[in-house]
Amino acid sequence: MSLQLPWHHLLWEQIKYCWQQNRLSHALLLAGPPGMGKTLFAQRLANLLLCEQQSGVKNSVDQVNWQPCEQCQSCHLLTVGNHPDLLSVHPSAADKLISVEQIRELIQFCSLTTYYGHYRIVLINPAEKMNRYAANSLLKLLEEPPSQTLFILVSHQPQQLIITLRSRCQLLNFSRPHPQLTQAWLQSRLAISQPTLTHQVDVALLLNISAQAPLVAVALAETEAMTQRQALFNSLIQLATGKMDPIKVVAQWTQWETVQILPWLLSWTRDIIRCALTGQTQYLLNQDYKTNLFRFSQQVDLKNLFNLLDQQTEVYQLVMGNTPVKVTGLLESLAIAWVKLTYSLRRSSL
Ligand SMILES: [Zn+2]
């Protein structure tokens, strides 16, 4: 829990200064794309504010020594996930949303006396998953916030939050770090977690296909995701050459995480468009597939490619939104659109 990521350095400086000056806002909005470490930041901040040792040395601590002690009872309770002054609110498994009942429980939690007499912390993650009633209930609470309470809202898509709620929070913006910083970090991280593979891993490629989100790149390297990505790409070739039909292909796709498949499809379509517009492959993010992507770009219609990109974007927004959708049907529509787009390739040897 004490992990500090190098691209968070300025944000920690900002938060520590506010904390020491007693100017920490009652609500923080940690906003940025997935894979930037927002949840780790929120957990570590909760740990720092609840650590009994840190609260005792508040005004003398410097950045290097601003670490949870990992010895006090608060730190121990946080490690086992059972601190009485911390409430974590996540979407319920049933509909993947945060309900108004959960916010009512949160309000009840805020009305209790704190167990340790320090901070009371409420972590809502991801905040955009609150339904409308939940968001409005939370807004009412933030209009008259309880004392010694910090609300930490983590959001991958802050634009989906109601504006009045956003305006009640201090924004911490987790923008994409400089590639030089993340490449060095990723290399050293994988040297520890995957020592036998490090020499084979192209960290620049991993970051490119992760939209420069370092923790997404780590997940790609440390899981079966790259194998799935290859299988997904192979299935596009099989669709294009008529060797598989869309229904069978989508039956395979639905075995995987939709939130992972769609960014890959979008990324490949964008790369094909880049090739079509420039006639070159050096600007592609998916350098490992450049030969096939270039070939697609030479043989499909640019206007139809943009239409496919629009359709993929729309499906992605629907899947990421708060309204329940039939994912299989949406994926089938994308697979069929891809078959139509690439129909002319059927006689080729792709
Ligand atoms: Zn401690």
What would your notes on this structure say?
The chain is an alpha/beta fold. It folds into two domains: 6-173, Rossmann fold (3-Layer(aba) Sandwich); 224-347, Zinc Finger, Delta Prime, domain 3 (Up-down Bundle). 53% of the residues lie in helices and 7% in strands. It has 16 helices and five strands. A five-stranded parallel sheet has the order 2-3-4-1-5, sandwiched between helices. Helix 5 links the parallel strand 2 and strand 3 (120-124). The longest helix has 21 residues, at 258-278. The N and C termini lie far apart (48 Å). It binds zinc ion (ZN).
Query: Mind telling me the CATH superfamily name of the largest domain?
Result: P-loop containing nucleotide triphosphate hydrolases
- Poorly predicted ranges: none
CATH class of the largest domain: Alpha Beta
CATH topology of the largest domain: Rossmann fold
Bound compounds, each kind once, are: zinc ion
Total number of domains: 2
Largest sheet: 5 strands, parallel
Distance between the termini: 48 Å
Q: Order of strands across the biggest sheet?
A: 2-3-4-1-5
Please give the CATH architecture of the largest domain. 3-Layer(aba) Sandwich
Order of helices and strands: HEHHHEHEHEHEHHHHHHHHH
**Residues in β-strands, percent:** 5-15%
Secondary-structure-derived class: alpha/beta
Number of helices: 16
Helix content: 40-55%
Summarize the structure.
This protein is α/β, with parallel strands linked by helices and 350 residues long. It has helices at 9-20, 38-50, 52-56, 73-79, 100-111, 132-143, 163-167, 179-193, 203-208, 214-222, 225-240, 246-253, 258-278, 290-299, 302-320, 327-341; strands at residues 27-31, 86-89, 120-124, 149-155, 170-173.
